[in-house]
Design a protein that fits this description.
By secondary structure, this protein is of the alpha+beta class. Helices cover about 30% and strands about 25% of the residues.
């Protein structure tokens, strides 16, 4: 039986399989982007693919805290587009 990697959403704190989450990464150069492959180099944070998780992350500043940098509004807009809001 193959092990399924689990990750925790920074907003909701729910632990689910990695493939069900969206990875946001801060590259070594300091650029923040959405990592659809899950393999980009840099510090990553996982967010559930729900409108509620995104709103909670924005309200609490969970992504900024996890990535240790300011998150541009364009990243939040891209996340909205990906989750189909």
């Amino acid at each position: 039986m193959k092990k399924i990697p689990m990750r925790r959403c920074v907003a909701t704190q729910v632990q689910v399989p990695k493939k069900e989450l969206l990875r946001i990464v801060r590259s070594p150069e300091g650029l923040v982007s959405v990592d659809l492959t899950g393999r980009a180099n840099g510090r990553g944070a996982y967010l559930a693919k729900t409108k509620e998780a995104l709103e909670l992350a924005m309200k609490k500043g969970a992504l900024a805290r996890a990535l240790e940098c300011e998150i541009p509004l364009s990243v939040y807009d891209e996340i909205r587009r990906i989750i189909g809001e």
